[in-house]
Amino acid sequence: MTSDFAPDAGNPEAAVDGVRLQKVMASAGVASRRVSEEMIAAGRVRVNGKVVTEAGRRIHPETDEIAVDNIAVQLDTSRRYLMLNKPVGVVSSMQDESGRPDLREFTKDYEERLFNVGRLDAMTSGLLILTNDGDLAHVLAHPSFGVTKTYIAKVERRVTAQTIAALQNGIELEDGPIAADKARVLTGQGGDGFSLVEITLHSGRNRIVRRMLDAVGHPVVDLVRRQFGPLNLGTLRAGAVRDLTKVELGELLTVSRAARPAQGAATPASDNSDAAN
Questions:
Q1: Parallel, antiparallel, or unpaired for β 124-131 and 220-228?
Q2: What is the pTM of this model?
Q3: Which among 90, 88, 64, 94 has a CA at the least distance from the CA of 76?
Q4: What digits encode the pLDDT tens for the residues 177-232?
Q5: Quick one: average pLDDT of 29-48?
Q6: Is 69 a catalytic residue?
Q7: How far is 13 from 25, CA to CA, in rounded Å?
Q8: What are the residue ranges of helices labelled H in 28-103?
Q9: Cβ(246)–Cβ(72) under 8 Å?
Q10: Which of 102, 121, 133, 274 does the annotation list as catalytic?
């Protein structure tokens, strides 16, 4: 798809010097050009991390990054970002070789070629991001970048404070030690003989939530991912899909950009990590 900011072939100045910042902001849907100029003058806009106060500043949208009030702005309008509440029974694949229900059901009405960021196993429901932004997907899915995911698990038997401490302090699994970033019991819920546990972690190891809880003696009965980085599933019903709001997208891009410098050139995830929690 042709970028909205492709230099005008008949305008050498645009080709050499880029596009005026306020025009870029308006094209990205931040605000009108006039309001964008006011934002720039007020010192609310950063280009590549540095505050810019000159409205005439030219940038290159293909390579430069901007933020308004420290929230990242996506300049490439060909990118799409969706949130899906994946139902139980759906495989996190765009085409399942075994013929099981897959993600094509939720992407067939979109023109863009979308793919999922990370995976949830067929029996796990909840928040799944669909996009055509490979760079963002890499940062979000690769565990080395430390983007957290939060799950709520219905487990067998009552979970004690000692068990929660063990999950946070670290337990040994067959593929090495693992510790939750955070864990807690949701009191007053779960029903007789069951508990609801909220667990947050950034690991992408296969079926890691289920394996952790099984290792401490509480097999999972039901598992749902409620949060992915700054995104929250909210009231989105099972099987529903929607575009991210501008606020959600800004927060997601901000997290992604903040994670990259800390890791540098990380090795790309070979298996679209976060496989089958």
A1: parallel
A2: 0.83
A3: 64
A4: 999 999 999 976 666 789 999 999 988 788 999 999 999 999 999 999 999 999 99
A5: 95
A6: no
A7: 19
A8: 33-41
A9: no
A10: 121
